[in-house]
């Protein structure tokens, strides 16, 4: 997919618009699988929360991926996309026992991350095997909002509470068929990940009926030229050797699981927007575009830096611009960024827009959410229509207190 293809998509489908390149998603999936070819059983469960469009779920399932879900709604989306229940793992946080029971009834793998629910579920449903999510107390991740394995995290059962887990398992006679961790996103240091893995291996020795060990994900992708990323090949080599060694000592060939989201879809995504106005102030040149953080919140929420390309003038002279949106508060995508000269009407492309972009979009300022387009084998397919005013109001109900009583003629 080239720049002209992207411009053509905006001409046909309008802007702003999200575009996903299926070929890149497939190559990332294959890259991860190829890094772990020395493991006998590998299971890649795509993290639905990154991008939950049904066509994306179907696409990844066609490659052989299962799904990692965090809500009953994501489970239902997966089933609707044709994913088999046994290929879905459900790892909620802070949800009710009722929701977990509803998901369990669907035949999905349950992953529990707190002692209270573990005991309640095991008491009522001792015959349903569950996985347990461990908090290894290892700090990893590129931002405090996405570091989830540290000691103050709300996620997982502390490794110091393993005796409590064992007591619950013994008292309920429930079966633990998997152990799981997720330390955080944007992991840079493989040695930190391997250190946390050792904690998970040690935890696994306490359970004799395991089928799998799930190492979560959080692999970092590059956001700009020269940016560092997780060395998947090195991780694959080192972790595969250690995993195979553990399986030998455990006496059983277990499945090695991962739950990548961003790694699979981030680089496949482009967010395209049109420049409405170029505004020169006393100190800054603003390029105001036809979108805002209601559609692309990562720069504001995570301080994420996304490369911005002027598709309409990719070879023009570079100037400094602050790229801002139309939301009625500070809404800055980039400050004083070197970009090829921008004029009103140009189309800008934000790279790495496949993960946590549409899935975190909103109707703030009563703006419509954009369309989503899948680029597959040289052709564009709309996989979500652009919203309309009817979509904006379809679930609103007018309170009867505002309905006037009919006036009687005198």
From TrEMBL:
Q: Give a yes or no for keyword Transit peptide in this entry.
A: no
What are the binding positions for pyridoxal 5'-phosphate in this chain? 218, 356
Annotated positions binding substrate: 298, 302, 329, 356
Cofactor(s) required for function per UniProt: pyridoxal 5'-phosphate
Pathway in which this enzyme or protein is active = Amino-acid biosynthesis; L-lysine biosynthesis via DAP pathway; L-lysine from DL-2,6-diaminopimelate: step 1/1
Database matches in InterPro entries: Ala_racemase/Decarboxylase_C, DAP_deCOOHase_LysA, De-COase2_C, De-COase2_N, De-COase2_pyr-phos_BS, Orn/DAP/Arg_de-COase, PLP-binding_barrel
Enzyme class name: lyase
GO biological process, any: lysine biosynthetic process via diaminopimelate
* Annotated EC: 4.1.1.20
Give a GO molecular function annotation for the protein: pyridoxal phosphate binding
Keywords for this entry?
Amino-acid biosynthesis, Decarboxylase, Lyase, Lysine biosynthesis, Pyridoxal phosphate
What region holds the Orn/DAP/Arg decarboxylase 2 C-terminal domain?
18-354
Q: Where is the Orn/DAP/Arg decarboxylase 2 N-terminal domain?
A: 24-266
Active-site residues per Swiss-Prot or TrEMBL entry: 328
| N6-(pyridoxal phosphate)lysine PTM sites in chain numbering | 49
Q: Which reaction does it catalyse?
A: meso-2,6-diaminopimelate + H(+) = L-lysine + CO2
NCBIfam families named in the record = lysA (TIGR01048)
- Family stated for the protein in its record: Belongs to the Orn/Lys/Arg decarboxylase class-II family. LysA subfamily.
Complex formation: Homodimer.
What role is this protein assigned?
Answer: Specifically catalyzes the decarboxylation of meso-diaminopimelate (meso-DAP) to L-lysine.
Protein name per its UniProtKB record: Diaminopimelate decarboxylase
């Amino acid at each position: 997919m080239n720049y002209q293809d992207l411009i053509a998509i905006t001409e046909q489908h309008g802007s702003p618009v999200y575009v996903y390149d299926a070929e890149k998603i497939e190559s990332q999936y294959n890259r991860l699988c190829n890094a772990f070819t020395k493991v006998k059983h590998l299971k890649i469960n795509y993290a639905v929360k990154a991008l939950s469009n049904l066509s994306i779920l179907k696409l990844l399932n066609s490659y052989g991926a299962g799904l990692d879900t965090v809500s009953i709604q994501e489970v239902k989306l997966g089933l609707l996309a044709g994913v088999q229940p046994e290929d879905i793992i459900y790892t909620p946080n802070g949800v009710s026992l009722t929701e977990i029971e509803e998901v369990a009834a669907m035949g999905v793998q349950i992953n529990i991350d707190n002692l209270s629910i573990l005991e309640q579920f095991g008491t009522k449903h001792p015959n349903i095997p569950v996985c347990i999510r461990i908090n290894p107390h290892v700090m990893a991740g590129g931002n405090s909002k996405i570091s989830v394995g540290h000691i103050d995290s709300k996620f997982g059962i502390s490794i110091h509470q393993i005796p409590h887990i064992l007591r619950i398992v013994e008292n309920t006679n429930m079966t633990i068929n998997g152990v799981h961790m997720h330390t955080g996103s944007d992991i840079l240091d493989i040695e930190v990940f391997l250190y946390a893995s050792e904690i998970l291996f040690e935890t696994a020795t306490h359970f004799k009926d395991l089928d799998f060990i799930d190492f979560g994900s959080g692999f970092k992708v590059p956001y700009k030229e020269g940016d560092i990323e997780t060395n998947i090949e090195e991780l694959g080599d080192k972790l595969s050797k250690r995993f195979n060694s553990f399986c030998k000592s455990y006496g059983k060939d277990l499945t090695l699981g991962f739950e990548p989201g961003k790694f699979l879809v981030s680089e496949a995504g482009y967010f395209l927007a049109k420049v409405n106005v170029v505004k020169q102030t006393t100190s800054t040149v603003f390029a105001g575009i036809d979108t805002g953080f209601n559609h692309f919140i990562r720069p504001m929420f995570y301080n994420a830096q996304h490369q911005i390309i002027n598709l309409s003038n990719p070879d023009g002279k570079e100037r400094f611009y602050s790229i801002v949106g139309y939301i009625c508060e500070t809404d800055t995508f980039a400050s004083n960024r070197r970009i090829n000269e921008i004029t009103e009407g140009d189309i800008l492309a934000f790279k790495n827009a496949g993960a946590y972009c549409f899935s975190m979009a909103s109707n703030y300022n009563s703006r419509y959410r954009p369309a989503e387009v899948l680029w597959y084998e040289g052709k564009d397919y709309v996989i979500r229509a652009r919203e309309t005013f009817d979509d904006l109001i379809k679930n609103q109900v007018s309170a009867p207190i505002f309905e006037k009583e009919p006036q009687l003629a005198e």
